[in-house]
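To assess whether ligand presence alters the predicted conformation, the chain was also submitted together with adenosine-5'-triphosphate. Input:
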Amino acid sequence: MANQDDNLLKKIVAHAKEYGFVFPSSEIYDGLGAAYDYGQNGAELKNNIKSYWWKSMVQMNENIVGIDAAIFMHPTTWKASGHVDAFNDPLIDNKDSKKRYRADVLVEEYIAKVEAKINKEVSKAAKRFGDKFDKDQFIATNDRVVRYTEEINTINTRMKSAIETGNLNQLKELIEELGIADPVSGSKNWTDVRQFNLMFSTELGSLAEGANKIYLRPETAQGIFVNFLNVQKTGRMKLPFGIAQIGKAFRNEIIARQFIFRMREFEQMEMQFFVKPGEEMQWYEHWKEHRMKWHRTLGLGDENYRYHDHLNLAHYANAACDIEFNFPMGFKELEGIHSRTDFDLKAHEEYSGKKLQFFDHQENKSYVPYVVETSIGLDRLFLAVLTAAYKEETLEDGSERTVLKIPAALAPSKVAVLPLLQKDGLPEKGREILDKIKYDFACQYDEKDTIGKRYRRQDAVGTPYCITIDHQTLEDNTVTLRDRDTAKQERINVLDLKNRIEELVSLTGLLRQIG
Ligand code: ATP
């Protein structure tokens, strides 16, 4: 079931700020729209997510290698990729409220309202007919529902045709005919619809030198395509093989709400898998399944993921789907898996005049490989982790806590070392233990406040284990190891600590499950 808690996102945003995960960018100047900074715990969590992805892609696959391309690229790259001409959103302004919207999103929101009416009719009828209710039959035959469905289909067809033919007047007419009002002010006083390119541009070189307009990359994929031959030749790669990359991407999103879900500066983890033409569907299915397994291994709940197959394919794709996650705003795209054919390499061949082909020794000929891409937003996965991890609980002793049940291997800190008291040599013993394990694990040390308060602090930042040093430690060299999720404690010898923690928190454990 989709998340129902309207307040969940607000709670996560507040918690992320209070506990050093995510801050609004340049907050002392009141922030900057859709830009965020990762704090001390956020940076650790982000790095751990990156390691999980990088290791499973690059380290565990003999035929996948990783690169780190520049954000700035030759401007022709974006001409060839189609971004200069086609990476647009249709935008519209309300003349009274001065608010800006995506015209297609306004129409989609209108459609969602009609869909809600259908759902209401369906649930009313389901109640009325009880066990005998046949939902499909009701949707196909009930007058009102049939009318609503027809309305949706007509609107969809008109919107699609307006966008495909670039006839933006039609889109404005549609908005006016449907009587769509500005959600904020209720005004229907709209400007014309304009195309808005999502790429940020800047100038390379000084004006005196004759500066060139260049773009901040809107996706990391093109850095991989332009390096296809470099990597293939220097790595002596044979098809099928993949090139992976983690890096920043920039999009001047028109509406950028929903926290780190939609930002103007974000990070992508992309892998382009080059295959022999004709084998792309088999690899597409492989990656579709494999990526879902990777997500589920994190343990955020299988029911929180689903596939969404694309029916309207982009001009370069012959198959595409999203893996959606149950975010606080409902199921939304987390990762895209796209079969991109030979579109990009061919376009770069054409614009650069360089051959971007693979010589197949078995067939004794050269050809442009096909590409299957997996593309995930690092920040969206970060939000998915927080969404599943955030819990408000009452413990057995009746006390309340807010806990982040982050998968142990991703948690910002793995262990906290907590001397029970600030005296009797307990802090010294604590520091001695910390000095032994700090090389292997990200640790915290805390001796202020009562032990209960310190457990709560560690729960709130998702530290999976707390080591408590008490008087018995001084006698028999044992400590307690407290589990964040169950709040249960085990007594364990200091000499066994490293192996035990390793067993509980290692990334290797997760990677082994993927195989
Ligand atoms: P959406 O439809 O949500 O705008 P998209 O289909 O444009 O996404 P892609 O171009 O397929 O996204 O990009 C691949 C991945 O990059 C997405 O699955 C998403 O996780 C991430 N991503 C895209 N845009 C943003 C953004 N503005 N902020 C954060 N992550 C993003």
